[in-house]
Predict the 3D structure of the following.
Amino acid sequence: MAATVALMLEVNPKLTPEDIKNILIATRETLKENRTVGGALNTFKAVKMAKDFKSHDKKSKQNEFRKKVIRILQESN
């Protein structure tokens, strides 16, 4: 799995850990034989999806908002 994650980050370095988890879950192959272990990893599908994935990094947006608020508060003093 580590190699798959490395390839995903190679094609899209902006992926967050949550993005990676969601992509791995979305691209797994679940068959009758592997259902009890959560499915089988599909590296090709995961990397393909990661390449075009647009990250929705909430922490980054929260940090930007926090910086703007601090700047406004500092300017008002």
